[in-house]
Every structure is written in structure tokens, then in C-alpha cells.
Amino acid sequence: xxxxxxxxxxxxxxxxxxxxxxxxxxxxxxxxxxxxxxxxxxxxxxxxxxxxxxxxxxxxxxxxxxxxxxxxxxxxxxxxxxxxxxxxxxxxxxxxxxxxxxxxxxxxxxxxxxxxxxxxxxxxxxxxxxxxxxxxxxxxxxxxxxxxxxxxxxxxxxxxxxxxxx
Length: 166
What we know:
Layout: H1 2-10, H2 20-38, H3 40-51, H4 62-79, H5 85-106, E1 122-123, E2 126-127, H6 130-147, H7 156-162
Antiparallel strand pairs: 1-2
């Protein structure tokens, strides 16, 4: 269902037949829909963070439940081809970098942050779900890039230097 919606967003009907203020209004509407759709994973993650009770649910710690929601959400996105495996790999890089940044921030040398609640899924004092906050940003960027049909245009020398940008 979402794959069909994505195709509709990439080729919105009726836009090319319009001109003037109607064209601008339709473009604004479709842009807003594409942006909202690109925020799907981020919306799930941040809604879960905001709505999850501080004490968790049914004896399960909050951080562990947030990790479960993030993993199940990502599995759902992959299962229904809302995100591709290549997109998932990129999101995994965001998750890994985000987790590393969180571990750095709570280290004794820096000490600018801490995760006080208990969790079974903490590593180095950092709950594993924390990397998904960064992954949510990565997911948004990837989805927006695809839905807005963005491309890079540069000279072949620049593309060769960057390893290609498409």
C-alpha cells in the first residue's frame, strides 16, 4: 500500500496541467505530502520516545521497549519494501555512528550526558535504541532524497572524485 503511495508521490497526477498559483499550490501540497511520508520512521521513533512511560510497560524497561519498537519498525519497512536493503545499510551506518557518539558523550572523559534508567540492552552505559534516533534522521534523508527525486549534477571530474553521485 505504501509502495503505491510512494509511486503516486513521485509522479503526482494533475500537476503538469496546471499553471500560475494553482501549480504553486499543488506543488506545495505534494511537497508537504512527500516530506511527511519521508518522516515515517522518524515519526515512529520519536512518537515512541514521547509516549513510552518512564517505567516501561509490563515490567519491561523503557529503553528495551524502545529498541524493540525500533527494530520491529525497521523490519516492517524492509518487509514491505518501504525501505530497500541498500537504504537499510546506510541507516545502519547512521545508527552505528550515533551509538558511538552517544558512547563518547557519556564517557567519563566527557560526561555531558547519561542514561539513568535500567535496561537489559545497554552497552557501555548507552541503550542500543539510542542509535536509532540518528538512524531516524538518516532514514528521513534517504526517503526525502528518493521521494523528491533529487540528483547531483556535476562535472565528470567531480563525480570521479566523489566516486559517483546519483
